Records
---
Amino acid sequence: MRVGRAEFVVSAAGAAQFPRDGLPEVAFAGRSNVGKSSLLNRLVGQKGLAITSKTPGRTRLVNFFRIDGRIYFVDLPGYGYAAAPKSLRETWGELVEGYLRARGELRGVVFLLDIRREPTDRDLEMRGLLEEAGLPWIPVLTKADKVGRSERPKLIHRIAKGLALPDPRQTIPFSATTGEGSRELWAAIAERVRAPDPRPARS
Ligand code: GDP
């Protein structure tokens, strides 16, 4: 899919600042440094787009990007990097958890994991939260260009097992460097947005 216009709309510090135009939303979540900004930039074909989410003071906020006036991509703060073994709740506070649990416009979450790493405890916490919130999620394995083709199946299996996915083929290997996986991810996002609201009672 080609994107005509992707625009940064707001860095929200609370629900009062979330957009009110009712467009469907797809959120992006993952560990800090997993490749979230690179993926967003590649998906929309705009190099500097997600740089906004990295500017000081915005890294803990919920950043909304309007895509072709039709949907919002919502960049959630990265969690659990390196020596900071904090729970999701400690990293995020109530803002992000509340967003995931209660936002009526939210149709699904793109959940990013580094293809080379086993899911961390924080990733598993994230998965638990998505399930609890009743949100469909799309597991995307980033930095796929960093591993050889022959190594891949083993790594994908390991992650699928860690996340208790019924089928490893549910994951989408992705590379911001080569563009691999872009088409598949766009298709999965489009399907999520077209599908009936998974949590109709909340909207
Ligand atoms: P974020 O903190 O999750 O937003 O991660 P970034 O997008 O800033 O990426 C973190 C680091 O990983 C940067 O040095 C990127 O250049 C690198 N990176 C991200 N995606 C890829 C990828 O698909 N392939 C390779 N080789 N490097 C990547």
Note: Residues 32-38, 78, 142-143, 145-146, 175-177 surround guanosine-5'-diphosphate (CB under 6 Å).
---
Amino acid sequence: MTILINHANEVLTMATDVKGPRLKEQMSEIGLQQDVSILIEGTQIKMIAPLKEIEQQYPSLVADAEVIDASGKIVMPGLVDCHTHLVHGGTREHELNMRLSGKSYMDIMNAGGGIHYTTTKTRETSFDELYDKTYTHLNQFLKHGVTTVEAKSGYGLDWENEKKQLEVAKKLQETHRVDIVSTFMGAHAVPKAYKGNEDAFVEQVIQEMIPKVAELKLAEFNDVFCEKGVFTPEQSRRILMAGKAHGLIPKIHADEIEPYEGAELAAEVGAISAEHLLVASDEGIEAMAKSGTIAVLLPGTAFFLRAPYARGRLMIDSGVPVAISTDFNPGSSPTISLPYIQNLACMNMGMTMEEVLCATTINAAYAIQRGEQVGTLEVGKQADVLILDVPNYKQLQYFYGMNHTHTVVKNGQVAVKEGSLVE
Ligand code: IZC
Ligand code: ZN
């Protein structure tokens, strides 16, 4: 199978000489090219060059290729959504009026709602029902140009149900076109049954769940909700170090609601990323810059919780590599629209149009250790290619709140055509 994408107004390769996550002004390098075509062979990008050169070099591949005319459109790498709570039962629209009339996210959780509500729903939902529900969500992601998603567990909060969530993600990785990267997040909340006995649950996560996740190879990363009233920095450190000892790379929900030195902890334990960071301290940001910890910022959560946005501009200027993501989850960010999240990042975190593209492609890929495979258009990389129905990339943030996805090539196959899924 060979595909040739011709006549795009702009091709944003997002490629540079930099290896690793992009910092500071590197985040503005979008690799804009005009008058180039893209040749895809099998699952890989074969050549990016003017059409004439491709025809000269690979005449037989070109002769056999399915040709996609991208006239008037732009082409870029498929989007990477590096922080989602993808697999979950139920929805939480009933919490919205509570929050709009003044109850906080934490008030609702402490009263037994929030994550606890979704845990009950997830426990009640069968493997097959969870699989079908999540399959539908993945279709929506794909229609919005997202070709790779991270998926956290954390609504089981016991081994049986954490395993169920992770196995749903594993099966979807095998059956759905979108690539899924799994994170174990058994420490997402202390189950209601352990109230007053929190350390016993921490022990269960450390002694029982983490070793099994590692043994069954159900996740690559280990995450914890380090937040006042959830897991303390000390408990979080123990959970992350235990994961590390079993080969699970640390990630951390840090400084989301109250400052809690989560960013500092991320740097200390060598986490690949710290996520949220709405109220991260100056010291925490400095520590992350030193350790190279990626900041995964989730402006949809600030929007939906009506909370202050993370200081994205300051983080970039301080030398922290920044990625942005939907945080798709039923409580604090029920959206799969990474394009809208890009808009929010521009408008509320002081990030430029170029920086948000970097933050949702190559930097997001590095946040889940996929920077060598996806996130840029380069020869030899996986052919995850997005064609957007705008004449220039600046319209992506200008015509906001819209889905401009026209065509998605996923792993060398056309997965979305004229905005609709291809079976
Ligand atoms: O279900 O509320 N912040 N975890 C930490 C979440 C938000 C997801 C949820
Ligand atoms: Zn989250």
Note: The two ends are 16 Å apart (CA to CA).
